[in-house]
Write a structure and sequence with these properties.
45% of the residues lie in helices and 6% in strands. By secondary structure, the chain is mainly α.
Amino acid sequence: MLRKCVIAITLISAVILFCSLAFYFLYWPKVQQRNAALIAHILEESAVSYKKDYDAYPTGSATEIIASLLGKNTRNKSYLRPEFQSFLDDNGYVSDSWNRPFRFDSQSDGSFKLRSAGPNGVFDDDDDLTSANAQE
């Protein structure tokens, strides 16, 4: 009887391990990509809300833009939820799913697009992620 219980526990453990590995290698990369794209989308949308109040997009360095959107502006109004601070690193940069800072790409209208270097950490190649990926 004890031997059957040991075999059953071993088999159940093996199934759990297999399912965990399958999730990690098959599903988790997609979660990370979607998360990075959503962070970019949220920031860009908050900048649009900021523009409605100030008739201009926030300006400055990446950390100054984030600070403005978090409430360090003349109205002390936050355009991002307080929980957004969990996406910031110790220096105030917005981190993607791989804990690397987003790049802020300025647009001709004064807005910006955020770009994650993606899983490989190299900008301007095929695995980069932007807010456009959030729509997929």
